[in-house]
Amino acid sequence: MPKIVFNRADGSQQIVEARPGASIMDTATRSGVPGIVAECGGAMACATCHVYVADDYLPLVGEVGEFEDEMLDDAAAERTANSRLSCQIRMTDELDGIEVTVAPEQ
Amino acid sequence: MSERVPARAGVLVAGAGEAGVRVATTLRELGYDRPIVLCGDEPHQPYQRPPLSKAFLDGKAVRADLALRTPEFFRDAGIEVRPGQRVTDVEVDDSGSGTATCEGGDTVEFDRLVLATGARPRPLPVDGGGLDGVCVLRGVDDAERLRDRLATAGRVVIVGGGYIGLEVAALASARGLATTVVEREDRLLSRVSAAPLSEFLAERHREWGVEFELAADVRELVGDGHRVHDVRLADGRLLPADLVLVGIGAVPETTLAEKLGLDVRRGIVVDAGCRTSHPGVWAVGDCTVRAHPHLPGELIGVESVQNANDQARAAAAALAGAEPPRPPVPWFWSDQRDLKLQIAGISSGYDRHVVRGTSPGADLTVLYYRGGELIAAESVNRPADFLAVKRALGKGKTIAPEPAADPATPLKELITDRA
Ligand SMILES: Cc1cc2nc3c(=O)[nH]c(=O)nc-3n(C[C@H](O)[C@H](O)[C@H](O)COP(=O)(O)OP(=O)(O)OC[C@H]3O[C@@H](n4cnc5c(N)ncnc54)[C@H](O)[C@@H]3O)c2cc1C
Ligand code: FES
């Protein structure tokens, strides 16, 4: 199963195995990764699943959608070129080892 | 079968849905280290309901996608989940500690009790409700039944034009099924929303082929003794149907609260910290009602994931002796095909509304005001508006109504202090 490395707000790392097809958000909330609030459960309605995807993996996670783009503009934490809503990234074997940093505020 | 071991829980949560799970997980986040037991009457691991009328009903999500947490998470967190264990009886002393009895006879002693029993579908008070082909939608088993029915149905009648009814209408019509929504009021969502939103939604649904019977009451569901084949309206007309979804709202589940003699008025009455009328018993989520934020003397029940989570956080903080969390901003969403509705605040009690949008039928935001101050907004496909309003309300700020009518001005630039 592909793994996700979460850099948590307190500086520690948590490595979680993902079910292929599940989103990064799904994987995080079900395993209780702190800081991923994800109140809407992936409906792209809350912008509380904000992460920063590590540079190496950015080209692999696809484009930011139009709606996601608007949500990210107004997310609670600062938006950078690495910002994504983690509910919009589905895990594949290709993404094994992907490193994401949990946004400091959701 | 579960073993009949007498256990003692620091906190017993009755009801293992969105709110109950959040009470347990927040307690652990706050460092609470006594045993936590979560009894749920459904024979499933705790799951999310919103997809039941959306992706799950559409076949785009499966049961595994609905899980709120993995079993490993609960195990590692020391949260004992007991699915299929309905709490049938409970006794509580003045301090809040007591004993609960589960279906099948198991008992759990506890120091503190949290009721998180949710709500059940409001039954349609007419004849014919028991006919085959008449469905409700609250749990995953309901959703699976409805999904199977939709695969073979030809004519669908949805009784109730609320969010769940509209979400199902959006899906049924997309499959080419003849779909009719019967609504008692003369427009959709009339109790909470202003007319522009009602009309926007009705107009888009009509384009999708959904028909509406507004200001219409159902008198009877007619069948051949086994299967439903018509819905009879109060004016006598018959709407042919081989699938009827009754979506006329939910009734808070208050059986245990009533047994305990708690103050129950439609729902279990709680304060901002989710305390019931018994100082040692808490209640959270869809089973509760509380003071309306704008209408003095009125009680309001808020059925949303946000409310379930925030009430749960408040109760957990009180139970763990932690600081109460900041007062939350109520919010809600609904997905209907390409329409994403996002609602922030509580609109009921508004005395003025302002509409903004770029082109009819594409997007819309309605801002609601009371006494000159912003209290809520409903957006369709305008996520930036929603997030700006949510932020303004969270900071106790407002947005001037006149400039807000210009859809080109970002609302976040208009946030100001209250007068
Ligand atoms: C189809 C559908 C779509 C929805 N869509 C949205 C949406 O898009 N956005 C949104 O914000 N909200 C939505 N909601 C509302 C949201 O799901 C609820 O507000 C939320 O689930 C409430 O959580 P709760 O824990 O209070 O209740 P529930 O999730 O209902 O959980 C209560 C649990 O307690 C159990 N129980 C009851 N009595 C007992 C007992 N005596 N002993 C043990 N267990 C008991 C119940 O069976 C249930 O499993 C939707 C709801 C439904 C049904
Ligand atoms: S979980 Fe809500 S936007 Fe991602």
From TrEMBL, chain A:
<dbReference type="InterPro" id="IPR001055">
    <property type="entry name" value="Adrenodoxin-like"/>
</dbReference>
<feature type="domain" description="2Fe-2S ferredoxin-type">
    <location>
        <begin position="2"/>
        <end position="106"/>
    </location>
</feature>
<protein>
    <submittedName>
        <fullName>(2Fe-2S)-binding protein</fullName>
    </submittedName>
</protein>
<dbReference type="InterPro" id="IPR018298">
    <property type="entry name" value="Adrenodoxin_Fe-S_BS"/>
</dbReference>
<comment type="similarity">
    <text>Belongs to the adrenodoxin/putidaredoxin family.</text>
</comment>
<keyword id="KW-0001">2Fe-2S</keyword>
<keyword id="KW-0479">Metal-binding</keyword>
<keyword id="KW-0408">Iron</keyword>
<dbReference type="InterPro" id="IPR036010">
    <property type="entry name" value="2Fe-2S_ferredoxin-like_sf"/>
</dbReference>
<dbReference type="InterPro" id="IPR012675">
    <property type="entry name" value="Beta-grasp_dom_sf"/>
</dbReference>
<keyword id="KW-0411">Iron-sulfur</keyword>
<dbReference type="Pfam" id="PF00111">
    <property type="entry name" value="Fer2"/>
</dbReference>
<dbReference type="InterPro" id="IPR001041">
    <property type="entry name" value="2Fe-2S_ferredoxin-type"/>
</dbReference>
TrEMBL record, chain B:
<dbReference type="InterPro" id="IPR016156">
    <property type="entry name" value="FAD/NAD-linked_Rdtase_dimer_sf"/>
</dbReference>
<dbReference type="InterPro" id="IPR036188">
    <property type="entry name" value="FAD/NAD-bd_sf"/>
</dbReference>
<feature type="region of interest" description="Disordered">
    <location>
        <begin position="399"/>
        <end position="419"/>
    </location>
</feature>
<dbReference type="InterPro" id="IPR028202">
    <property type="entry name" value="Reductase_C"/>
</dbReference>
<dbReference type="Pfam" id="PF14759">
    <property type="entry name" value="Reductase_C"/>
</dbReference>
<dbReference type="InterPro" id="IPR023753">
    <property type="entry name" value="FAD/NAD-binding_dom"/>
</dbReference>
<keyword id="KW-0560">Oxidoreductase</keyword>
<feature type="domain" description="FAD/NAD(P)-binding">
    <location>
        <begin position="11"/>
        <end position="312"/>
    </location>
</feature>
<dbReference type="Pfam" id="PF07992">
    <property type="entry name" value="Pyr_redox_2"/>
</dbReference>
<keyword id="KW-0285">Flavoprotein</keyword>
<feature type="domain" description="Reductase C-terminal">
    <location>
        <begin position="331"/>
        <end position="414"/>
    </location>
</feature>
<protein>
    <recommendedName>
        <fullName>Ferredoxin reductase</fullName>
    </recommendedName>
</protein>
<dbReference type="InterPro" id="IPR050446">
    <property type="entry name" value="FAD-oxidoreductase/Apoptosis"/>
</dbReference>
<keyword id="KW-0274">FAD</keyword>
